[in-house]
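>> received
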Amino acid sequence: MRHLESHGIASEAIAAALPDIRVEIVLTAHPTEAKRATVLEHHRALYLLLVKRADPRRTPYEQDEIRREVLAILTALWRTGEIFQA
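>> returned
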């Protein structure tokens, strides 16, 4: 209001325009929320890999492959800022 008045628009003109003004709230994702879906996907994939790795029937080769996949997911999570060093 002050901004409009400082630019020479009379209070009466502002008051007359108010009934015609339509205000809509627009919510946008914060950058940290935008990455959230991807982070959840990584967590799900990590969980599934850990379940697979716990299976004693897995061969050493399969265990190594799962370990590599786990490391890749942990690296991706680290790069998104989801894993912090203490």
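>> Residues 25-86 form one domain.
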